[in-house]
Amino acid sequence: MNRRAISRYTFILFALALSVVACKPVDKKKSGEQTVKPLLKKAIESEVKDVVYPLPTTFELTSMLNRIGADYILGLSNSTDNADKYFTEKARALNLGVYGADLSYASTYNRKQETMLFLKASKTLIDNLEITSAYNKTLVDDVEKNLDDKDQLVKVITNSFYDTYEFLNKNGKANLSLLVVSGSFIEGLYIATHISENTYANPEIVKVIFDQKASLEKLLQVLEPEKKDPNVAALIAEFTGLKASYDKVVEGKMTEAQLNEIIASVAKLRNSIVE
User: Fold this and answer.
1) Domain segments of the chain: what residues?
2) Better-predicted residue by pLDDT, 118 or 22
3) Any residues with CB less than 8 A from the CB of 172 and at least 6 apart, and which?
């Protein structure tokens, strides 16, 4: 896997990113939110090719859910009380990814209090993992300053995702960087699969879930070179099982039984990470 250092200057135009960009012109939702401006979409599409981060960030997924009218569900994300309960490097890295996805979810829906809680939980794990980049040292202050500016807030948080990934790779911890990415991916998919009590009745949500197959396949590709690490190998096994469930879907037409199988697999894997 190419591990070039990521220049922070490439992120000045960055804002949203994760699976298929869900950006439209400013559009009021029933929740009073605004979607991110279309100019940012073009910036992402042009810049993402130049960076090493292997997947789009969870912002793209949570923005799609917001766009189709899915509500913000309190209690769906990992409890911030758990942040101090993760003692191993593996658990901290995976749950840093989980909280990153939860942070994306909260900030996408303009949930200011939850945004700050998930930010502080993330910062706890960043500090515990000794990710001492200059950018992350000012992260909390930068987010607090931009809580009322959604575009800038998204940029600040996205920059943190990339900065963390860069730091771990530059310091010989590629395996940990992949655990962070994996935690973020599975939490985003967990949110998508549990955001509705009757997911199959909403074809737009079903499509969002199915479209994550492409990210899952990409994730398996980038995990493969680090499979000698037992933690990465375990994730490959779990994600391969999940892919097998996706592979049962023919021509994108997902049955309710196939969806329920994916939902159960995602929940089992996610809960094994956060508990």
Assistant:
1) 14-274
2) 118
3) none
Token reading at 60: 């793209």
Using DSSP, state whether 28 is helix, strand or coil.
Answer: coil
Give yes or no for a contact between 192 and 65, defined as CB atoms under 8 angstroms apart: yes
What are the tens digits of pLDDT across the range 218-256?
999 999 999 999 999 999 999 999 999 999 999 889 999
Cβ(202)–Cβ(196) below 8 Å? yes
Q: pTM score, two decimals?
A: 0.80
Mean pLDDT score, 181-210:
95
Residues facing 253 on adjacent strands: 250
What sections of the chain are H helices per DSSP?
A: 38-47, 58-67, 89-108, 112-128, 134-137, 139-145, 150-170, 174-194, 203-211, 213-223, 230-247, 256-274
Type of residue found at 6: I
**Which of 182, 161, 197, 207 shows the shortest CA–CA distance to 61?**
207
| Cβ atoms of 94 and 231 closer than 8 Å | no
Beta bridge partners of 271: none
- Neighbour tally for 264: CB within 10 Å: 12
Q: What per-residue string of b and e applies to 111-122 under the rule 16 or more CB within 10 Å gives b?
A: beebbbbbbbbb
| Res. 210 pLDDT band, cuts 50 70 90 | very high
Cβ neighbours around 267 below 10 Å, total: 15
- Name 250's bridge partners: 253
What pLDDT was estimated at residue 213?
Answer: 96
Q: Is the pLDDT of residue 7 over 80?
A: no
Give the pLDDT score at 134: 60
Map residue 29 onto helix, strand or coil.
coil
Does residue 183 contact residue 273 with C-beta atoms inside 8 Å? yes
User: Are 64 and 22 within 8 A, CB to CB?
Assistant: yes
